[in-house]
Amino acid sequence: MRKTFVVIAVMGLVAGAVALAAGPRSATAQGGGTVEVDVKYNGAPVVEKVKVNKDTEKCGTEAQIEKVVVGANKGLANAVASVAGAKGNPTAKKAVVDQHGCKFVPHVTAMTPGEIEFKNSDDILHNLHTYSTANPAINKAQPKFKKTMTEKFEKPEIVKITCDVHSWMLGWVAVMPHPFFGVTDGNGVAKIENVPAGKQKIEVWHEVLGKQEKDVDVKAGQTTKVSFEMKGK
Amino acid sequence: MRAVLATAAALALLAAPAIARAQGDANAGKAVYAVKCAGCHGPNGDGKGPAAELLLPKPRDFTSGIYKIRTTANKTPSDQDLFRIISDGMPGTSMPAWSVLPEKDRWNLVAYIKTFAGDKLKDPPKKLELPKEVASSEASIKRGKEMYEAIECHKCHGAEGRADGPSRPELKDEWGHPVAPANLTKRWNFRGGHGRTDIATRIANGVLGTPMPAFLDAVEKPEDVWHLTNFIMSLGPDSPHNATLVTVTAVTEAIPDDPAAELWKKIAPNNIPLMGQVIVDPRNFNPAIDLVSVRAVYNDKEIAFHLTWDDPSESSKGDGKTTFTDAISLQFPPQITGGTERPYFLMGDGSDAVYQLRWEQGKGVAEMAANGPTKIAPIKGGEAAGKAVYANGQYRVVMKRPLVAQGTERPTFRPAVFTPVAFQAWDGGAGEAGTKMSLTSWYYLRLEEPQSSRKFVIPPVVTLLTLAAMVLIVRAARSRATHT
Fold first, then answer.
1. What is the ipTM, given to two decimal places?
2. Nearest CA-CA distance, residue B111 and chain A, Å
3. Cβ contact A143–B211 (<8 Å)
4. What is the pTM for the complete model shown?
């Protein structure tokens, strides 16, 4: 037991060191800049409401499927912004998705290939059901006593996650082939750090509103702003 | 131990030819597929054959490479898994057992259907290792029940396993088709077989492409998979033990209306299988009710029928478009002649009516006369009564009426007469109403003769007479022998 602990600790340190060493160096080597992506949507939010017939003490009596979330300044939340066609090493940061209040939190997660941790903080049965083609599809039960479950997404793709026990639960995990990405916040803003300088293509993906691309000129040490206006489908 | 060794040896012997033959010829399989499989699974293997729209569950889409029944830890099923489903079919679905085909054809089909998935099945099958088997015992079943509750199997399968859990209406497969959880009390309908290992494998592995998740890593201890298996096997019998004749037991006491009354526990059930009505439009290709357990008794005044059947939702009215009222009916000829001629089983026709005892949720019991499935009218002065209870995905209904009836529309029941009887049932919550029903053809019921002391008298008398006759014959033979 103690040995395992030591091994894990050493691995953690090594991973941390590698991440520290690799991250800034690759950025400075290529002369990295920041891209601030501003995603707007002119349409109305799309929120489906479902009456809940079970687990109401955890899920509430009415569940909301937030398919299009629009902030006060028309900012579109839950969009994944990334540098199209970029290459880079996976980050050491492990993605975490919590099943909380019968929702996947966050609704959209982006990660580099590797492990992802699924938490169940609801104290009821959930099942993790993924829809994927590149990665092996998962459908595993996560009962109340199984607080965390670690899975692997090793191939880049966008994975839909659902729970069949609570059919309204919907989440997305974007597995990116490089570390240059961000997910828009409630104001529709995502920051992508350490983007290699030069001409880059920024891609925005949203689960309902689809994809858009724009060219940007990234300057080392500076923040470049780019805005998108997503169209309704 | 010796038994285990013998079993292992037998299994090895069985497995050996299977492995040897596992290399089917896909090209040869293609020809068989076109004739036997394409009707449902489609010429392109996408599950969209011409018959597919009538089927539920839908035929497998082979292009997805997603197979429900696997003994493998990964997505790729073993060839033996595919061979088995082709050979044994899938109980409770439209997939028949193709054991009528030569074994070679079936292996060729295995090879051919795998080609539809392209490289989606490129990973070699990896055998699922089940935890060490735990034999069934009272303690194991108890632990299984605890685990059933702890991991919340009831969310879909219901508190008593009758597929009536609260998540049931929401369940969809990966193609978006509605999919029902298994009724754990009827394991003969389990898609992947109902042997111990089959059940343990489904729990551990889940059913790919459906909401049923894998529980191997989601139980407290690995052997809980076997405790769950033992508990599930304790929920119902191994087979439905279908009856061929409905026996009506003679009783002397008053017959209770209450379906939960003690009397009914003493009466053996006659299990009657039901089929979808597919003769007149609208037809019912996917009947929801497949079995009714009938307990019947009579006394000097009344005859009563106690009916038990599974229905995952209590539907008292419905919206009149997609959901309707739950109902059940028993059908008899209007007069019982004891002859072989009977009205048309599908609720009679224009020339010959039938008599029905019908229970409808929210309305209770009524006596009806029918001249076909769309011409049903209540009989005036009906004397039937009864009561229903619904709990945990199951109806229990008592219908009773006087033994003797007046007029030509209602039969009088007499002991020892073979009386034609048929059954119809509707799961309104599943959209069944009118001709969309489950039904049986004619069965017979027989009121057993009232309990009398005759059975204690006649057999001994017959025995004595036979003995006397034998003695006489022996004596006669002996005397003849001494004379010659």
1. 0.81
2. 22
3. no
4. 0.85
